[in-house]
Design goal:
- The protein is of the alpha/beta class.
- The protein has 2 domains: 129 residues, Enolase-like, domain 1, CATH 3.30.390.10; 220 residues, TIM Barrel, CATH 3.20.20.
- The chain has 13 helices and 15 strands.
- β6, α6 and β7 form a beta-alpha-beta unit.
- The longest helix is centred in the N-terminal third of the chain and has 18 residues.
- It is globular.
- It starts with 5 loop residues before the first strand and ends with a strand.
- 49% of the residues are buried.
């Protein structure tokens, strides 16, 4: 791999089209970093951080990502020669957790590596697919009718699966009415850790609704209670927040905590660890899909490339750019056609950076020479 000569951190602030509400809060303005790795041949690789400004989803935030990248992770990259992107996760291993900060930098290295070798990021990862099926994630709505109308719009657009955010007081009755309206549509529920084992009888009512899965119903750091819940439910449990590594995955599978794993690149520390989790789940017969973190175009492109791996057998959350943004930072923007994204074949992430948009949304830039 041609050595990195410079790393840039572009801090952006973009406003989503609509507020996005889950069991832990509502967000519309999104701050994040676009990372840029540059070599001396003019190649530029891009990654994206996915931490939010508040530690809702995990302990990481935009500001902690900056601290970790600037003060710990980039200095590690400056001191070491990287021969392959897989080296990055090994170099970062002494730094505990902070997976979203690690992933943001590793993603830029993967994109740079693919461009240096004149291959798509999907091909560099070992991807097999030319197109991927995608679903849609719908936040908590102000009314059930608004939710049903929103679902109808996305079903008409051809999305392959509908994910509905739930929380206590907005769950069984809501899902029952949705199922009555859409009896054949693949539907899953995402609880974002809103329940406990005390709710087991309540959650078992989901078994009558024919859901694809319920995602992370119990505590964000739990795999023990999920095993108990899964033994008492027919509905497959999908783990999200509990899974930060291949080791977490192995333990959850061996305990019987879930039947499905949601792989989010940022949550597990990057594409290399995502691949390892994918490979293990494929060997174990565990279904996997690629989750989303309300990414802009760069992170969305990384998710597309990852989903081309053969074990991703369920539609992911990688909707088109226009689902969230009036203007994205890539050209062309990600487009979904009848629930399918065609995988770009150009080198790297396959999309160009819209320099004008990047400049417009950038509020600060940090440059590190190697």
């Amino acid at each position: 791999m041609v050595p990195i000569k410079q790393m840039k951190l572009h801090k952006l602030n973009m406003r989503m089209k609509d507020p996005f509400t889950t069991s832990f809060g509502t967000m519309q303005d999104k701050e994040f970093f676009i990372t840029e790795a540059v070599d001396d041949r003019g190649n530029r690789g891009f990654g994206e951080s996915v931490a939010f400004i508040n530690p809702w989803y995990s302990e990481e935030t935009v500001e902690t990502n900056l601290h970790m990248m600037r003060d710990f992770l980039i200095p590690i990259l400056q001191r070491n020669l990287i021969e392959h992107p897989d080296d990055v996760s090994a170099l970062f291993h002494p730094i505990k957790r902070n997976n979203m900060a690690k992933s943001a930098l590793e993603g830029a290295v993967w994109d740079l590596y693919a461009k240096q070798h004149h291959m798509s990021l999907a091909a560099a990862l070992g991807g097999e697919k030319k197109e991927i099926d995608v679903g849609i994630s719908i936040g908590i709505q102000p009314s059930i009718q608004k939710l049903i109308d929103t679902i109808g719009r996305f079903v008409a657009a051809g999305y392959k699966r509908i994910k509905i955010k739930i929380k206590p007081g907005w769950d069984i009755d809501v899902l029952r009415q949705v199922r009555e309206k859409f009896p054949e549509v693949p539907i899953m529920a995402d609880a974002n850790s809103a329940y406990s084992l005390a709710d087991i009888d309540h959650l078992r009512q989901l078994d009558d609704l024919g859901l694809m899965m319920i995602e992370q119903p119990l505590a964000h750091d739990d795999i023990i209670d999920h095993a108990t819940l899964q033994k008492n439910m027919r509905t497959p449990i999908c783990l999200d927040e509990s899974i930060h590594s291949l080791e977490d995955t192995r333990k959850a599978v061996e305990l019987g905590s879930c039947k499905i794993i949601n792989i989010k690149v940022g949550r597990v520390g990057g594409l290399s660890e995502s691949k390892r989790i994918h490979d293990y789940c494929r060997e174990q017969g565990i279904d996997v899909w690629c989750g989303g973190m309300l990414e802009a175009g760069v992170g969305r492109a990384h998710n597309i490339a990852l989903t081309t791996l053969g074990g991703f057998n369920l539609p992911g959350d990688t909707a088109g750019s226009s689902r969230y943004w009036k203007k994205d930072i890539i050209a062309p923007e990600v487009v979904v056609e009848k629930g399918v994204i065609h995988v770009p074949e150009k080198p790297g992430i396959g999309y160009e950076i819209d320099e004008d948009a990047l400049k417009r949304f950038t509020v600060d830039t940090y440059v590190f020479d190697f």
